[in-house]
C-alpha cells in the first residue's frame, strides 16, 4: 500500500507541474487568453444581436404592375400589409430581375395585362412570382408569405364574382373555403429565428474556438527550446509528450465547458427559449463533443507537425460545421462526400442530441444511444499513438539539425 501511494505521488505531482506549466504559457500568450475569455463572449452576443429581431421583416419585393387596375393595386396593398414584405414598384420586368440579381430585392411579383378582366370573365391569368432561392430561409419565407397575401386578396375577388352570379352570401364563404386548415409549429410556435438558428450557429462557433485553443497549445510545443527545461520538465517534443497532452486537456476542458454552459444558460435560462429536456444532458453531450474535437486536433497535429498547416487544415475542416448540421438543409440530400465530411465533425453528432433534448425532451437512455456515434473518434486514439511514436522523433531530429545548421556560421565567426 505504501509503495503504491509513493508511486502515485510523483505521477500526480508531475501532472500538477505540467498544468502549472500550461497556465504560465497561457498567461504569456495574449491571443490564447483572448480565445478563452472575451472573444467567445463577444461572438455569442454579436450573433444573438444579429438574430434578435426574431423574424425577418420588411423584406423588399419588386412589383411589376402591367395591369394597372383596381385589383392589382389592392393586391399590392395586401403585400404591404404583410409585415414580412415591403413592395417596391418597377416599370418593367428586366429592371426588377436585375434588382433581384443585385440583391436589392429578394422577390419579384408580376401582375399580367388584363388580369382583372380575365378573372371576371372566367379565364385563369398567371401571376408571375419569382424569388431568390440562394437565400434559403428568406426565399422560403417570402414564397409562403407572398402566396398567403395574394391568396387572401384573390379570395375577395372570387367572393364578389359569386355574389354577382346570385350565390347567397352565406354560401360564398363555404364555396371558397370548404375546408379550413390550421398550421401550428410544434417546437417553434412563434416561428422565431433565434430558437431555430442561433443555437446551432453558437455550437459551430464554440467548436471552432475549441479547435483553435487546443491547436495553439499543441503548436507551442514545436517552438520551445529543446535544450531548456522548466521545473525539471524538458521542452523536447518527445519528452513527456502524453503527460503534456493530458495537462492541456485537464486545463482547457473545464474552461471550454464553462463557455458551452454559458451558451446554454444564455439561450434557455436568460432568453427563455422553448426547452423540453434537461440542461445536464446537454452538458454531458457537450463534453463528448469537446473530447472528440481534442482527438481530431491531436491527430492532425501529430500528422502534420507544422503550426500553419495544422491551423489551416483544422479551420478548413471545421468552418462549414453549421451547413452540415442539417438544420437548414436535409443531410440525406447532400452528396456522398459531404455526408462523409459531416461524420468527421463532432458538432454534427452533438446537434442530434441537442435537438432531441430541446424539442422532444429526450432522456438519458436516448442520449446515451446517440453518443455511441462517437466510436470513430475513440478509434483514432491508437492511430494517434502509433503516429506519435513514428513521426515525432523525426520532427525532433529535423529541429536539431536545423539548430546545428543555424549555429554553424556563428562558430565559424568565433574562430
Automatic annotation (TrEMBL):
Spans traversing the lipid bilayer: 30-51, 193-215, 245-269, 275-303, 310-329, 374-392
Keyword check for Membrane: yes
Location in the cell: Cell membrane
Domain ABC-2 type transporter transmembrane: 31-381
One family name in Pfam for this protein: ABC2_membrane_3
Signal peptide residues on this chain, from the entry's feature table: none
Sorted UniProt keywords: Cell membrane, Membrane, Transmembrane, Transmembrane helix
InterPro entries according to UniProt: ABC-2_transporter_component, ABC2_TM
Domain of life where this protein originates: Bacteria
Topology in membrane: Multi-pass membrane protein
Cross-referenced PANTHER family: INNER MEMBRANE TRANSPORT PERMEASE YHHJ, MEMBRANE COMPONENT OF ABC TRANSPORTER YHHJ-RELATED
Designated name of the protein: ABC transporter permease
UniProt source species: Shewanella mangrovisoli
Amino acid at each position: 500500500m505504501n509503495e503504491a501511494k509513493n508511486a502515485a505521488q510523483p505521477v500526480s505531482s508531475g501532472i500538477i507541474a505540467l498544468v502549472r506549466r500550461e497556465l504560465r504559457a497561457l498567461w504569456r500568450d495574449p491571443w490564447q487568453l483572448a480565445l478563452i475569455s472575451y472573444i467567445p463572449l463577444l461572438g455569442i452576443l454579436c450573433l444573438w444581436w444579429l438574430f434578435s429581431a426574431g423574424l425577418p421583416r420588411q423584406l423588399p419585393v419588386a412589383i411589376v404592375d402591367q395591369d394597372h387596375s383596381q385589383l392589382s393595386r389592392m393586391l399590392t396593398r395586401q403585400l404591404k400589409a404583410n409585415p414580412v414584405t415591403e413592395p417596391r414598384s418597377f416599370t418593367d420586368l428586366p429592371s426588377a430581375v436585375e434588382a433581384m440579381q443585385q440583391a436589392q430585392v429578394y422577390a419579384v411579383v408580376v401582375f399580367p395585362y388584363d388580369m382583372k378582366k380575365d378573372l371576371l370573365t372566367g379565364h385563369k391569368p398567371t401571376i408571375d412570382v419569382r424569388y431568390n432561392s440562394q437565400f434559403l430561409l428568406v426565399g422560403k419565407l417570402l414564397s409562403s408569405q407572398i402566396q398567403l397575401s395574394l391568396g387572401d386578396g384573390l379570395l375577395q375577388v372570387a367572393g364578389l364574382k359569386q355574389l354577382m352570379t346570385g350565390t347567397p352570401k352565406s354560401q360564398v364563404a363555404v364555396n371558397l373555403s370548404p375546408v379550413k386548415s390550421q398550421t401550428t409549429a410544434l417546437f417553434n410556435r412563434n416561428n422565431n429565428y433565434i430558437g431555430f438558428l442561433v443555437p446551432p450557429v453558437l455550437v459551430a462557433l464554440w467548436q471552432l474556438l475549441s479547435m483553435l485553443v487546443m491547436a495553439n497549445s499543441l503548436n507551442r510545443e514545436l517552438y520551445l527550446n529543446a535544450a531548456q527545461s522548466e521545473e525539471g520538465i524538458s521542452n523536447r517534443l518527445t519528452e513527456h509528450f502524453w503527460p503534456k497532452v493530458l495537462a492541456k486537456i485537464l486545463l482547457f476542458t473545464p474552461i471550454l465547458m464553462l463557455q458551452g454552459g454559458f451558451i446554454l444558460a444564455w439561450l434557455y435560462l436568460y432568453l427563455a427559449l422553448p426547452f423540453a429536456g434537461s440542461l445536464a444532458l446537454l452538458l454531458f453531450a457537450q463534453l463528448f463533443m469537446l473530447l472528440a474535437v481534442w482527438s481530431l486536433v491531436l491527430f492532425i497535429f501529430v500528422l502534420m507537425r507544422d503550426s500553419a498547416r495544422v491551423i489551416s487544415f483544422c479551420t478548413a475542416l471545421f468552418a462549414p460545421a453549421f451547413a452540415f448540421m442539417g438544420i437548414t438543409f436535409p443531410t440525406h440530400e447532400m452528396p456522398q462526400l459531404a455526408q462523409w465530411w459531416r461524420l468527421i465533425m463532432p458538432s454534427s453528432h452533438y446537434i442530434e442530441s441537442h435537438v432531441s433534448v430541446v424539442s422532444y425532451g429526450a432522456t438519458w437512455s436516448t442520449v446515451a444511444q446517440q453518443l455511441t456515434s462517437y466510436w470513430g473518434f475513440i478509434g483514432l486514439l491508437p492511430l494517434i499513438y502509433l503516429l506519435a511514436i513514428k513521426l515525432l522523433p523525426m520532427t525532433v531530429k529535423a529541429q536539431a539539425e536545423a539548430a546545428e545548421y543555424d549555429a554553424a556560421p556563428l562558430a565559424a565567426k568565433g574562430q
